[in-house]
Amino acid sequence: MSSTTNNDDKQKHNQKQAGDSVLEKSMSRRDLLRLMGVGGAGLLIGATGVGGIMQAANKSLAVATTAATGAGASGDVLPFYGVHQAGIATPSQDFILFAAFDLTAASINDVRTLFQAWTAASAAMTQGTMIGTDNNNLNLPPSDTGEAAGLSPSKTTITFGVGPSFFDGRFGLSGKKPSSLEELPAFGGDELQPEWCGGDIGVQVCANDMQVAFHAIRNLTRIARGKAVLRWTTEGFQRTSGADKQGATPRNLMGFKDGTANPDTSDETQMKQNVWASADDGVPWMAGGSYMVVRRIRMRVEVWDRSTLSDQEATFGRHRESGAPIGSLKEFDTVDVNKKDENGKPIIPANSHLALARGDGSLKILRRSYSYSSGLDNRTGQLDAGLLFICYNRDTSKQFIPMQTKLSRMDKLNEYIVHTGSAVFACFPGVSEGGYIGETLL
Hints:
The chain is α+β, with helices and mostly antiparallel strands.
């Protein structure tokens, strides 16, 4: 259980100090393979092919430069190309649509072709332009599904990573698998469901409009036909920027501020230490990338809603209204887990989420989580709602796993949550224009 990044708010604080679910229901891989007709099916990008879509994307980007001038003035366009992939250090947008894919490609060349096509399409979609050139030919299927036509880019970011199964030997890449890229161990209290776990490829799409985010995943899935199929998807949300003009730290579905303790993404030293992988880590192709952990955490909201405020605050280790550590007044006040009251009792409970997650302060991860709601659980008659926990770290085995191991054993919050989904991905470094995602690996 953790938090949603709110870098804008933290930067403001630092300045002061210094001066239903569209795709939610999962289908089995076998059903998807049958549905999508995998076998002799080739890559479907309208009728343009990979070369056509890449050529069209270059034209689209040229057009987008002019179109984005006005949109960029309001910060509506975020660059796809760069040293690092967007969507990691990027301040969290309003919505997320996360998708895990399984590869059905027959060769490494097919995988490379897929990534090239995805790169061209992603570069166009993040600029708010149509994919491909066949959108006005009455004799061909449109190369873009069209539901985002006329909509703004909505700060869309598309972030790609590969899971441990990507290196299982099918494509001759087992020797390039990072040692830290392993499926997570079983944690105490896990009730993982296969339909929310794993995947050869993970794609995180974030945007300030859910229809724009859905458009991205829909078209990436369409482009992948014959080479990859969806394994599972989850939508997420936070309070929108329109609902909170002050840009305060978002609250999770338990009513507590979620995203206070993240490292400062504007501090390159902190990011290199905690988030960005380095060639010195022994995996040169990951330099500039990051390791992503995805956990689907269901909240027992009905039980939580019957808990007293004092119990809720003791569970998190923070005051609900202000977000301040217990015993403090302001959200970003320094946390002192060793501070005791007049009776020698820790002011912040030792088994609170804050105390355990912080520890001695040496372990840090970049949280980028969203709330989710999947409607009613017909088995229990209760809400299926909670947190789509996403975090980025430089080395999962040294950062997230030790932290979660401690939380799973002692966290008072475990009374109110259960982890139902789990996946890990190695997110590629950024890509330069003319290149493609995963180029350093492939």
